[in-house]
Amino acid sequence: MNKPFSDAKLHDCRDAFTAMLESLAVADDAIVAVCNDSVGSSKLGGFREKFPERLINVGIAEQNMVGVGAGLANGGKIPFVCAAAPFLTGRALEQIKADVAYSMTNVKLVGISSGMAYGELGPTHHSIEDFAWIRALPNVPVIAPADRIETAAAVKWAASYEGGCFLRLSRVGVPDILPEGHVFELGKAQVLRNGSDLTIVANGVLTHRAMTAAVMLEDRGISARVVNMACVRPIDEAAIESAAEETGAILTCEEHTTFGGLGSAVAEIVVETCPVPMKRLGVPGVFAHTASANVLLDDFGMSPAAIADSAADLVKRKR
Fold it and tell me: What is the C-alpha separation between 144 and 204, in angstroms, rounded?
């Protein structure tokens, strides 16, 4: 079996984020960064050196940080508000609701070290509810890029998009998946691999694991389609409907609780348009324990082999 990505270089998507942000800031002096004493973890050191007057560090005050971002947006700036995802979305949810979503301000929310990337710091630092929290709010697209290429493309899109959005970026290294020059389109999924027996839908750090699982399934005589669903809201309804109609079963994989996230969003479309057997892989409604991010994904049944086993079981339900 030829495992994809087995020898591939792994990239930290934060590097792609800051490289694109700095490039965009050279051309547009309206772009500013706001952070919560997180210059290091947000990898904004280079931005601070190049544009010291355009980095606002509010200290450990996430609610204030979002309000400052909204004020800057109302003043004509394009603020990228960066913080650890659990604290940006959890502590400042009211400000995100009132100052960004309801007020429709042009604030780019960047959740750093999302999902279970802070693994060894435990449940207080896991961000496995953020899809659900932000997806429930109007006017804020929710985006989880799969690799450095999609991250850079999403940041470029966000800078030109007139409105708020939430970019969910991990610090866990991932291989390149999307082609160089990829252009991000809001609400548009990518079919990374064609298949006829079922579809695996994933995003973020799970996408490359889903691709590896599909290769494992091929060796077992199962043809798996793999869809990269970076946009949790707005979601690509056409891609989901096609997957249901053409492959007859859908497996979702996400670094998130199984309540309210990617799997729930896909299931909402499936149940209303083309009901087929489905299974949602994720954290099953519990607090994730303390371990490295990759160990946690494996523990919750999302190693490539475990994804392949879940897919095989799902295919049996079609018969």
Answer: 5
Residues 6 or more apart in contact with residue 309 via CB below 8 angstroms? none
User: What are the structural domain ranges in the chain?
Assistant: 13-168, 190-318
With respect to CATH, is domain 13-168 assigned 3.30.70.100? no
Catalytic, 255? Answer: no
pLDDT digits (tens, 9 = 90+) for 212-269: 999 999 999 999 999 999 999 999 999 999 999 999 999 999 999 999 999 999 999 9
Cβ atoms 170, 196 nearer than 8 A: no
Identify which of 36, 44, 38 has the alpha carbon closest to the alpha carbon of residue 14.
Answer: 44
Cα gap 168→156, rounded to integer Å: 15
CA dihedral in degrees (292, 172, 210, 175; nearest 10)? Answer: -140
**What's the CATH number for 190-318?**
3.40.50.920
- Classify the C-alpha dihedral 116-122-123-127 as positive or negative: negative
By the 8 A CB rule, do 244 and 233 touch?
A: no
- CATH fold match for the domains 13-168 and 190-318: yes
Residue among 22, 62, 180, 237 flagged as catalytic: 62
